[in-house]
Design brief:
This protein is α+β, with helices and mostly antiparallel strands and 94 residues long. It has three helices and two strands, in the order E-E-H-H-H. The longest helix has 32 residues.
Length: 94
């Protein structure tokens, strides 16, 4: 069982959002700030969210391309389920 150790408060339009991190995540955030790569923990979190969005968009683009490839081909040996499974395996999703 992981213990949540670190709490980050982010002000969003005059409201506070509390985010909890594991010790490993907190160490990573600290290391990024201490390295000078980021000015503060909020910058690290914003960058992580941006990268997650890029990752999600890329996965969706790849799925659409694979589906279109199947549609465009005369005889595809793959079902939509096969394509989804392949993409999930590629991106480490269950």
């Amino acid at each position: 069982m992981q213990e949540w150790l670190y709490l980050l408060n982010i002000d969003l339009n005059n409201s506070i959002m509390n985010i909890s991190f594991t010790e490993k995540q907190e160490k990573y955030i600290r290391s990024q700030v201490e390295s000078g790569e980021f000015q503060n923990a909020s910058e690290v979190v914003r960058n992580a969210i941006r990268l997650q969005k890029v990752y999600e968009n890329r996965m969706i683009e790849d799925l659409r391309a694979a589906i279109q490839e199947g549609i465009d081909s005369e005889d595809s040996p793959y079902s939509v389920l096969d394509i989804v499974r392949e993409q999930r395996a590629k991106y480490g999703k269950k």
